[in-house]
Structures are given as structure tokens and as C-alpha cells.
Automatic annotation (TrEMBL):
Tagged with keyword 4Fe-4S: no
Identification of the protein by name: Preprotein translocase subunit SecA
GO biological process per UniProt: intracellular protein transport; protein import; protein targeting; protein transport by the Sec complex
Leader sequence segment: none
Species of origin: Flavonifractor plautii (Fusobacterium plautii)
Any Gene Ontology CC annotation: cytosol
Length: 298
């Protein structure tokens, strides 16, 4: 009644002096209370429904991320996934600078190449003029970069060996996914806290939350792919570093000992011998034979 009851009914009860403990038999008051209960239940139901709709957005995102993490933790071969990421990253970068144009200009092409220099492009590689770029459409430029990236990736795998390369892919992907997922959880929480204000602009907060949450999730996935590729290409793994370190320690230890592996005997330094009738070195004032030297001959 306090939240949803009619002000007219409340005023009537005050005028009649009806106490809070007095049973209400009047039909008009009973109907007002019943309507108030329905409104309270409806409001509570809507609140629970809204909370569930908010949670569904995060649950959907969580399923996608946890499925990816499960593949990594189960030790699945991620080579195809990484190659697909590489293709997507290159294609996205080219399309972003190409726009609706049929051919890219030299300035935009330099910006595209700058994103991949140090990863799989050398500083002096693929420097095209505007005239030369007229021969390439978006797909041709994408294929050009993709071929170069695949070649460098294959060289890295040959250098490290397939088992170590697969482990590198798993470690880098898991690390990047965890970092970006934690940031996304915080961002989604901030979005949820302020999304209710959209109602003042005649916008459904839940719809706005779903739309913006999806956009944030898509941006996170793109960032995960780009960062994973970047870290894999930049990673420098020293094959056999542990073995080399152990060999160095063993070498130093061997040099400290004799050349044949035996420790050289050091000469024993003897101090000045104390006479039996001399004062005891311990400072007791007694003769040595009556103090510390009593049991010397035993």
C-alpha cells in the first residue's frame, strides 16, 4: 500500500482513524491491497527477468572463452586455429585501410605494412608506389602478406621444432585470452552499472546492454587474435638453454678441481707450538700442562 496503494485510499484510512492492526473488510480497500500485491509481484518478476537477461549476455561470452581455454588446456593442436587467426588479422588490417576503394594508395599501404614490420615483414619489403598498387586489389594484397607470413611462420616452426612450436602457441594463446577476458569482465561490469540511465533517453537498457556488450566482445576477440599473433612471432625461445647452463656449471666445477676430476689437497698450516710450562693460550693464567694441555698426551 505504501508503494502502490491509491493516495485516495490512504487518505480515507487516515480520516477514519483505522489502526494498522484493524482488519480491513471494505471491498474497495481489499481490491486496492490486492492490486498493490499484483504490482509488487510484477515488479519483482521484472527485476529478476532483467537480471537474468543481463546474466545471459555474460554467460554467452563465457561459453565462447571457456571453450577456447578448454582446447588450450587439453593440449589440442592449435596450428590451424593460429593460422586462421593470422589470416583474419591480415585481412582485417587490409580491409580497414582499403575501405570502399578498389585500390589502396601508397600512404595507407605503408600504414598496413607498419603493423607487421618486425613480425614477418622487413623494413625494406613491399614498398609500392601508387602506380604499382593499381595492380593489386584487397584480396591480392591480403594474399601477398599471407604468403610472406606463412613462410616466416614455417621457418620459425622448423627452427624450434613442431612440439616446442605447438607449446608456444598454447602458452601464448592462454596467456592472452586470460588477460583480455579479465579486462572484458571489468568493462562489462562498468557498462552494466551505468546502462540503467539509458531508460531516461527512451532506450531499453537491456537491449542497449546486449548491443554494446556484443560490440565489446567482438572487439576483444579481434584484439586477442592480433595480440596472440604478435607474441608468437616476437617470441624468442632459446632451444637447449637449460642444457647449456648446466654444462657451464659443470665446466666451472671441473676447473675448480684437478684436471683429472680430483680435488687437489691443500697444505695444512700449523700454528706455533705451545710449551707445556708456558701460560695457557686460553687466558686462564695456568700453565698449559695444568689447563688445556692436561689430556694432550692421552
Amino acid at each position: 500500500m505504501r508503494l502502490f496503494g491509491s493516495e485516495r485510499v490512504m487518505g480515507m484510512m487516515e480520516k477514519l482513524g483505522v489502526d494498522e492492526d484493524t482488519p480491513i473488510d471494505a471491498k474497495i480497500l481489499s481490491n486496492a491491497i490486492e492490486n498493490a500485491q499484483k504490482q509488487v509481484e510484477s515488479r519483482n518478476f521484472q527485476t529478476r527477468k532483467t537480471v537474468l537477461e543481463y546474466d545471459d549476455v555474460m554467460n554467452t561470452q563465457r561459453k565462447v572463452i571457456y571453450e577456447q581455454r578448454r582446447k588450450v588446456l587439453d593440449g589440442e593442436n592449435l596450428k590451424e586455429s593460429v593460422q586462421a587467426m593470422l589470416s583474419t588479422v591480415i585481412s582485417t588490417e587490409v580491409q580497414a585501410h582499403m575501405g570502399e576503394l578498389k585500390h589502396m594508395d601508397a600512404e595507407n599501404w605503408r600504414e598496413v605494412c607498419a603493423q607487421f614490420r618486425g613480425l614477418f615483414l622487413r623494413p625494406d619489403e613491399f614498398k609500392f608506389t601508387d602506380e604499382e598498387l593499381q595492380q593489386y586489389d584487397a584480396q591480392a594484397l591480403t594474399d601477398l602478406l599471407q604468403e610472406r607470413a606463412s613462410d616466416i611462420y614455417a621457418r620459425k616452426e622448423a627452427e624450434l621444432g613442431e612440439p616446442l612450436m605447438r607449446e608456444l602457441e598454447r602458452v601464448m594463446m592462454l596467456r592472452v585470452v586470460d588477460e583480455y577476458w579479465m579486462d572484458n569482465i571489468d568493462a562489462m561490469q562498468e557498462l552494466r552499472q551505468g546502462i540503467g540511465l539509458r531508460a531516461y533517453g527512451q532506450n531499453d537498457p537491456v537491449v542497449a546492454y546486449k548491443k554494446e556488450g556484443y560490440e565489446m566482445f567482438e572487439s576483444m576477440i579481434a584484439a586477442i587474435q592480433a595480440e596472440t599473433i604478435r607474441r608468437i612471432f616476437l617470441a624468442r625461445v632459446q632451444v637447449g638453454a637449460t642444457t647449456v647452463k648446466r654444462e657451464r656449471v659443470a665446466k666451472v666445477t671441473g676447473e675448480s678441481a684437478g684436471s683429472d676430476g680430483t680435488v687437489k689437497k691443500q697444505p695444512v698450516k700449523k700454528g706455533q707450538k705451545v710449551g707445556r710450562n708456558d701460560p695457557c693460550p686460553c687466558g686462564s693464567g695456568k700453565k698449559y700442562k695444568k689447563c688445556c694441555g692436561m689430556h694432550e698426551d692421552e
